[in-house]
What does this fold into?
Amino acid sequence: MNFYNEQLPADANLQFKALKALVIANCRLTGSIPPWLNGLTRLQLLDLSLNHLRGSIPAFFGDFKFLFYLDLSNNSLSGEIPKNLTRLESLISRDISLEEPPTDFPFFKRGNMYKNRGMTLQYKQIMRFPPFLDLSSNLLTGPISPEFGNLKRLLVLDLKHNNLSGSIPGSLSGMRSIEMLDLSFNRLTGIIPASLVSLNFLSKFSVAYNNLTGIIPSGGQFSTFTNSSFEGNSGLCGEFFVNCHKIHQGALQTPASENNEASDIIMPVLTGFGTGFLLTVILLLIVPAIRDKNKTD
It folds into this structure.
């Protein structure tokens, strides 16, 4: 909450090789993410949220061996999500050591949708922050990379309020530790993969306001999610939706209506056939009898 409307310095020669945490949030910073951040090879936590940053997300973020907390939310970043972000080692392997002694001063982080919304959280160690990736409320486009499923240690993935398209990869079930997954307010299509039911720690999930279709998976943590997790998708069918019953009724009514139409055609034909058959029988029985009677007379 300083440096209002200033621009991050663009000098490529800036070097902060020992820096582990950089938090410049809620400052209305302008411009793009500067290339000198590439030199922060020891960085574990980066928070540039609630600014006015533009341009794309640098692919070099994925090369940071120790980065496990990245918050770029509430900016105007555009383009596709770099695939390199799915290669963050500290979100893939538990072998990356982040142990360190407590600092002499606390870190403060305002609560978000993950938990303690609106409250200020205090941490004495960087490593106490949850493994976290928040790219929400930007202008990002393109698909969600299936390689996100590689991030086995990630607890929070927030991609809401963007312009992401394509389908939800079933491989996201590989994020075994995920507790919050928010894909709402995008342009996603297709079904909700049934494989996501296997995410045993998922406590918050939302795909609201996309263009999804099909039946909502059941079982696992999905039994705990409310209507708000799925609303705004007219093609979804599930326990919470009236249109689900309409879909099933439509499926049942279609053959019936076709049968009714067929019966409307067949009945007159059968009626006509029956009438003709009856007249033929009458003629065959009565006419010979009349002839015999005339001969006798």
In short: The chain has two helices and 16 strands. The chain has a mean pLDDT of 81. The CA atoms of residues 14 and 210 lie 42 Å apart. Residues 241-297 form one domain.
